[in-house]
Structures are given as structure tokens and as C-alpha cells.
Amino acid sequence: MKLDTPISQYLLDKYKVIEDLFGITNNIRVNDFIATATAAEKRNQWESLREIATLAKRQYPDTVLGDYYLGRYYEETGEPKKAMKIFQGAYDKEEVDFITIDKLLDRADKIKADFGY
Q: In the CATH scheme, what is the homologous superfamily, with its name and number, of domain 7-115?
């Protein structure tokens, strides 16, 4: 939380150091995505959140992880219609941790009610 660099860069740097030191190339762990995305939200680093969401969608395409954070990005940057569509589009994906299908659909319904879509 005290870094001056974007939080998404911290995440990339962490796994680059692991690769350089140990020669291990792993996918970013789900817990690391959740932790850095939460930090990005707390610090209002919306572009970092978008980057984290993009990485999550690439590494875990069958889960709701990337969709949830990309939807959150669009919610916070003033594009609720895009957020709603992303949340709704993830209904057939695998749930991750606290990010459930019901949570995404509830967010989509709230946007629909608030903006009359």
C-alpha cells in the first residue's frame, strides 16, 4: 500500500523476481490477484485494477476473477453499462473465493436498477 509505483506493476515485478531468482515461471496466484486488486481499489488506482483484471482474464479465463475486477473498473470509471454487461457475461464461469456468480449478478441488477437499463 505504501508503494509509489502502480500496484499492477508490483504484481508483475514480484513474479519477475521469482523467475529471475529461482527460474520458476508460474501463473500469478489467485490470492495475489485478490490482494493487489483490493489494494488498487483502496488507493483508487483504477488503471492498475484494469491491468490486474486483464492479467487475471488471461491466466484464469474460465473463472470470474478477471470479469469481476474489469467490471469494477468500469463501474468506478463511469461506464456502468459496460460493467453490467461484463458482470452478466460471467454467469457461466467458475467462482473464485468470495467472488460468486450471485455477487456479479447482484451488481449487474443494482446497476440496472440505478440507471434504468
A: Tetratricopeptide repeat domain (1.25.40.10)
pLDDT confidence of residue 4? 77
- How many residues belong to the chain? 117
Across the chain, which has 117 residues, the per-10-residue mean pLDDT values are 82 94 94 96 96 97 98 97 97 95 97 90
| pLDDT at residue 116 in the model | 85
CB proximity list for 52: less than 8 A, separation 6 or greater: 7, 8, 11, 33, 36, 37, 40, 69
Strand partners, 63: 94
Q: Classify each residue of 34-72 as buried b or exposed e, where b means 16 or more C-beta atoms within 10 Å of its C-beta.
A: bebbebbbeeebbebbbbbbebbeebbeebbbbbbbbbb
Task: Answer yes or no: are the C-beta atoms of 77 and 34 closer than 8 Å.
Answer: no
pLDDT for res 102:
97
